[in-house]
Amino acid sequence: MCSLSHLGFVELTIFPTVVNLNRIKLNSKQCRIYRVRVNDLEAPFIYNDPTLEVCHHESKQRNLNYFSSAYTAAVSAVDPDAGHGELVIKVPSELWKQGDEMNVLKVYIEFSLDQPKGGLHFVVPDVEGSMAERGAHVFSFGYQNSTRFWFPCVDSYSELCTWKLEFTVDASMVAVSCGDLVETVYTHDMRKKTFHYVLPIPTAASNISLSVGPFEILVEPYMHEVTHFCLPQLLPLLKHSMSYLHEIFEFYEEILTCRYPYSCFKTVFVDEAYVQVSSYASMSIFSTNLLHSAMIIDQTPLTRQCLAQALAQQFFGCFISRMSWADEWVLKGISGYIYGLYLKKTFGVNQYRHWIKEELDKMVEYELKMGGVLLHPTFGGGKDKDNPTPHLHFSIKHPHTLSWKYYKMFQCKAHLVMRLIENRISMEFMLQVFNKLLSLASTASSQKYQSHMWSQMLVSTHSFLKSISNVSGKDIGPLIKQWVDQSAVVKFFGSFAFNRKRNVLELEIRQDYTSSGTQKYVGPIKVTVQELDGSFNHTLQIEENSLKHDIPCHSKSRRNKKKKIPLMNGEEVDMDLSAMDADSPLLWIRIDPDMSILRKVEFEQADFMWQYQLRYERDVVAQEESILALEKFPTPASRLALTDILEQDQCFYKVRQGACFCLAKIANSMMSTWTGPPAMKSLFTRMFCCKSCPNIVKTNTFISFQSYFLQKTMPVAMAQLRDIQNLCPKDVLNFILDLIKYNDNRKNKFSDNYYRAELIDALTNSLTPAISISNEVRTVDNLNGDVRLILEEITRSLNMEKLLPSYRNTITVSCLRAIRMLQKNGHIPSDPSLFKSYAEYGHFVDVRVAALEAVVDYTRGMHRTSPSEVSRTHPIPYVVHKILSMLGKNPPFTKAAESPLCNEALVDQLWKLMNSGTSHDWRLRCDAVNLYYTLFGLTRPSCLPLPELGLVLNLKEKKAVLNPTIKPEQGPDTTEMTGITMGGLITMETVSSVSMSSGVAPPPQGLKRKLDSVVGPLGSSSPEPGQVLQEEDTSKKFKIRFNTVEEDEIDMESPHDSQAFIHHHLNILERPSTPGQHPAVLSLPVTPLPSSFGKESTSSSKHSGDHHHHHHHHEHKKKKKKKHKHKHKHKHESKDKERDSHAFSNSPASGRSARSPSMSD
Q: Do 1006 and 323 meet the contact criterion of CB atoms below 8 Å apart?
């Protein structure tokens, strides 16, 4: 296997904006730093990464509360937004005076990255041939700001700089990075070439990315500045999938009335992607699984949606960045909102409203279950303010501590809130605000190194809201207070009565605001009432908890007059009014039809009203609501209404799909009174089968996508039908088997793989638990006849897939699910070995995930495999993420239940995974924390032995001392004293033999970087109190060499030797990863002693710097001098210092383990 590594070189140009800039803090993880020079002088540095191992000194405290506070503290200790970093460089004292003359500092860092576990992902297929022939490639990935994983930088979204990037790679490879490709230069021996990229637009390091591989290249025919890259042999798919991209460009440029901000755009499609879409400055990295041919129906809209999301994030997220994590919701909200507008234009209003309802339901369900999602967290202030979300088991102070599901819901809520703002100020004003943000940013981006201008390229909540009030003149304060500054949703219960005497509708709307995740709503709410004479909107004011509202009705009830009834959209229809209440003119009522509150509504109205609403309301959201409600009314009238919808071609296809499943449920409830053939059978026969022979399906032609989706869904819903014995009716099963048998796709220009997969799903749905005869052993021979037919069909499909695989292996995925259902229902012996073989590396990712899902389910049912065993053999971050999330969703046991799996070994394994095993990937660490929480809760796992009494007291003491977050701000005056702040103008250029480079850029003074104080670990002197110092980045140089040396190592990527791999992996996990134990990783001139970085005011670290630099003989002199120099500060500080030195000396983020050597004399 080749050694997966690179050598690099970074050059940062810093414009100090303060005198005596004596320490520079950068972010860097995994990189081995060889030497650091500042203006050609060797500079000493310290490297300390407290997130490598969160809790040191094998604490027997295995509770999550302790871990979470320690993890938050560790992340805070290296948070670039607060001016911290893993790498602290001491500026040589000869250069201190340069601060006065404001000269430029150039920082040169040489580093290497060997077999990185995160940040860069190497894909090396285990086949014959050279690297290029094997399609080996590498790409950068990560969740939020993760650039520090592959080169040292200021890894913050608010520190902008311009970039020069150079990458030297094998001559058969192409390097794709941000900015314009200026030139490609071959080395003398023609075996390597260097790609030079320049990105003149100020960009945060977190938005820089890289991808190297033997890519095939396609230039967009309509827009030559757009280039697409894909892996070998996929060019035809790339051409088809991207043929639509220029229309997305045109749409965004038109609504934003603003050109695309970069001079080029590159899309790269890679295998084993971290997420489907990741956006970086002027380029996006996509999963290669999004590519499809013209024959594929189902993937097409999904791929277009991914492209549209990526492009929306180019404008808001890459070009316009954010001031701080608290402002993330603005970027996610705007990009999600304009993506929604694209959805509305391309896929239609129905699809858009369906999507909004889907997102709203998802988010409401999450908030009610987990407690609220807070868009704009503010910290500092009182005790409660420090943890605004006490209901969560993780901190929301940093993106890196959030659970992935929470982050997904956060993005979802952000765009829904943008839509609420649009409802309030109108779309026209909304787009004007976006245009204003973009035009200010593009003006700023063209300025040379005047970093104060560049702050226009950063958006903050404050500036966004100010812009809204300037443009629209409307006050949206209350809306922001309700949905952005506080979490939770609203829960309404509605019911009504009609008062015939007064001809008044008495509406009662109650709220539940006491249960978790709910809040009280006060304000307007819209109610739509459909009466005989038309549809009327009423706006009610919600004030107290339970409120009755009287709404006057416009029409009198009429008995026999025939007259058309006007609908909301102006259409007039004939209705059969015999079902309705003769005394009342009401047809149906809807609460908040526009979804202009983030809410859940449970409304009670009569069954005939739901049926009218389903048939005649033209809004898909209303139709979907009525389908849901009709499940509770199994009557012939409901059956008729649903069947009518299924037959209506002009009805939205997703509504008809929903009606299929609702009809199956109703049929099962009406089992005894149901007449005629099974539900949907005659309809399916009429629509899709031959006239002459009704049990043979017509040759497939999927010209009409509407009927294609219906044809796919109906059999799946029919399979849920049950007879009196609770079995799937024989004729339904035979009907489905016939559909599979007579399926003929020869004349179809579209692939039928999704349809065939759904037919297998239908077979799965028809399965019912086996009737077990006592002590009979289950074998394939004594299977029930029907089940045997199903098993044969599944086996045949699975074998066919091996010869003729379907697109994305959809059929294999369905077959694996079916086999798991056969096992669960007791028809065949439960055995995970088939799934384990399909879960191995080398199978398509969807197949692996489906197989792993079955293994996870088996683990839960049988209590045999340990869950951590499942997550070991998978070198792909995405797959491990899926395993951990599936275990979280379907845990083998929970904190409430006893289980043989709940034992000390499992707790240890999971703890290790959280504590040090996932330090290379924020998302995996948060997944592991989630799983730990699901299995054991916040407190100490019940299966662990109780600690001895002496220890308990100890823990309590520690708890009293442990400060959950290491905060430099103890109060306004101390910050001034102890923290010098610096901004930073960092240029990156890159020169290298096999190198990547990152270009020139000055950042704004967005967030001031706090520097260490007097008592910093390097024992330096520091400027006067109240001084502020800023550095600004202007250019970065950065070289990376990819080695391709064959080495005898365990082949991490191939599935066959998984035992060795597990063993190897376990060894890695056993090893502690405190920086102190690995002097090799650090470079001279520092002897690595873990020093407490989180807060450098511990008394012991006062002279640790002297140790580091071997100045023992100067020590006492220095100390005296120093005391003298800073007399005026000590008055203020001594108290804080004492306080801090106790508080942090043992805190996990101080980077100091209990065993670490003391740093005092």
A: yes
- pTM to 2 decimal places: 0.83
H/E stretch holding 687 reads helix 681-688
Which has more confidence, 292 or 40?
292
Beta bridge pairs of residue 170: 192
- Tokens standing for residue 784: 């029930």
Q: Return d(Cα 114, Cα 116) in angstroms, integer.
A: 6
Strand order in the sheet with 160-170: 160-170, 192-204, 180-186
The HSE-up count of residue 575 (CA atoms within 13 Å, CB side) is 27
Q: In 381-415, which positions are buried (b, 16+ CB within 10 angstroms) versus exposed (e)?
A: eeeeeebbbeebbbbbbbbbbbbbbbbebbbbbbb
Residue 777 to residues 209, 769, 826: CA-CA distances in angstroms? 57, 15, 11
pLDDT of residue 1095: 36
Tokens describing residue 1009: 């970087």
Q: 497-532, pLDDT tens digit by residue?
A: 999 999 999 999 999 988 889 999 999 999 999 999
Give the separation between CA 696 and CA 742, rounded to whole angstroms.
6
DSSP annotation of 916: I
- Other Cβ atoms less than 10 A from the Cβ of 682: the count is 14
Question: Which distant-in-sequence residues (6+ apart) come within 8 Å of 507 by Cβ?
Answer: 494, 495, 496, 527, 540, 548, 549, 550, 551, 589
Q: What is the DSSP letter of 130?
A: -
What backbone phi and psi angles, to 5 degrees, belong to 926?
A: -65, -35
Angstrom distance (rounded) from CA 322 to CA 458: 5
pLDDT at 948 over 80: no
CA 100, distance to chain mean position in Å, is 45
Confirm if 1140 and 1013 have CB atoms less than 8 A apart. no
Tokens of 659: 């009606």
Please say whether the beta carbons of 865 and 859 come within 8 A: yes
Q: How far apart are CA 773 and CA 768, in angstroms?
A: 15
pLDDT at 784: 85
Q: How far apart are CA 781 and CA 783, in angstroms?
A: 6
- Give the CA distances from residue 585 to residues 549, 553, 559, 578, 920, in Å, rounded to whole numbers and listed in that order: 18, 8, 10, 12, 65
Q: Do the Cβ atoms of 254 and 285 come closer than 8 Å?
A: no
**Contact predicate 1036/204, CB 8 Å:** no
Give the whole-angstrom CA distance, residue 78 versus residue 26: 9
436 Cβ contact list (under 8 Å, min separation 6): 467, 471
Take residue 324 and report the two structure tokens written for it. Answer: 């701080």
10: nearest Cα among 30, 29, 36: 36
Q: Residue 637 is inside which H or E element, if any?
A: helix 636-647
Which of 674-683, 695-704, 1152-1161 has the lowest average pLDDT? Answer: 1152-1161
Residue 705: what pLDDT? 96
Cβ atoms of 1000 and 1029 closer than 8 Å: no
pLDDT in tens, 237-266: 999 999 999 999 999 999 999 999 999 999
DSSP string, 326-390: GGHHHHHHHHHHHHHHHHHHHHHHHHHHHHHHHHHHHHHHHHHHH----SS---SSSHHHH-S-T
H/E stretch holding 1059 reads: helix 1058-1070
3-state SS, residue 528: strand
Q: What does the block give as tokens for 157? A: 């979204």
Q: What is the chain's mean pLDDT, rounded?
A: 82
CA distances, 1073 to each of 35, 48, 919 (Å): 22, 11, 10
Return the bridge partners of 164, or none.
Answer: 198
pLDDT in tens, 724-779: 999 999 999 999 999 999 999 999 999 999 999 999 999 999 999 988 766 666 67
Of 379, 359, 578, 405, give the one whose Cα is nearest residue 929: 405
